[in-house]
Amino acid sequence: MFDFFQKKNYTYLMKRFFGKIKNEHMLIDESEHIHLSKVLRMKVGDKIIVNCNDEFDYYCTIESITKSQTVANVESKKECPALPKRNIVLFQAIPKKEYFDTIIAKSIELGVSKIQPFTSQFTVVKDVKKDRTIAQIMTACKQCERSKLAELGDVKTFSEMLNSLSNFDVVLFANEDENETSKFSPNFVENKQNIAVIVGAEAGFSPDEREAIKKAGAKSITLGKRILRNDTACVSMLTLAGIFSDN
Fold first, then answer.
1. Is 104 left (phi over 0), alpha (psi -120 to 50) or beta?
2. How far lies 246's CA from each of 21, 153, 186, 238, in Å?
3. Is the overall model pTM greater than 0.85, yes or no?
């Protein structure tokens, strides 16, 4: 008999949802249920993958769809291969919405465990719409097949951000004012488990802030002669941190 779940080449066809596990069943409600039932118009008997914010992918069959929730029977589970192997935290000075949207999606694809927004002297936006951002994180995690949501930290001040850096094995700082001798080296992240990456907002950091970050122990590195937009800088930094830390 054809076993849908054992055919690895077919799993990419299965839709993913976040839900809650209860007695070998998955309960899918709220926006995820609406997307499943109203947008995708899935039916009883359809095969889906459900995640409940742990380390596993749960392969399920839809058992019932009511007005308020979907119930799916768990057939099997496998450890999620897409979860980050190391703890990479992005400290992002809050940019405008159009840049932050890109940063959220790409940073999750590149394996961050947590997005920590903060304010600085040149940030125009001073807060984050938490519900909207969490919804974006969920969408990005489903897209890149991560079973566990990246964490969203509460907005910190610049001083609070600096005080958080002592908890990391290495801190990488994208410094547009740095010279060509201060390039990234794979040795910075080799055998490091907890990695922090700091990226500024549209206008970067003030000279005093750049000095404060370096005095806090961050490795200040250049990303080349061209000034990068903050979302491009974010992708560049996380690519270096992720690839060379064997993420």
1. alpha
2. 31, 24, 10, 12
3. yes
Query: In the chain, where do the E strands start and end?
Result: 15-18, 20-22, 25-29, 47-51, 56-65, 69-79, 87-93, 114-118, 151-152, 170-174, 194-199, 219-221
Candidates 232, 91, 115, 95; CA nearest to 171 is: 91
**Residue 122 contacts residue 201 (beta carbons within 8 Å):** yes
Distance CA(16)–CA(59), nearest Å, equals 10
Amino acid at 119: T
Which whole-number Å values give the CA distances from 164 to 67, 77, 107, 156, in the listed order? 45, 36, 20, 10
Quick one: what percent of the chain has pLDDT higher than 70? Answer: 93
Q: Count H helices, E strands: the chain?
A: 6, 12
- Rounded to the nearest integer, the mean pLDDT of the chain is 90
Buried b (16+ CB within 10 A) or exposed e, 58-69: bbbebeebeeeb
d(CA 158, CA 154): 13
Which residues make beta-bridge pairs with 49? Answer: 16, 59
pLDDT of residue 23: 87
Euclidean distance between the first and the last CA atom of the chain, given in angstroms as a whole number = 38
Closest to 203 measured CA to CA, from 90, 91, 95: 95
pLDDT in tens, 80-108: 999 998 999 999 999 999 999 999 999 99
Distance in angstroms (rounded) separating the CA atoms of residues 189 and 75: 39
Asked whether the beta carbons of 99 and 66 are under 8 A apart, the reply is: no
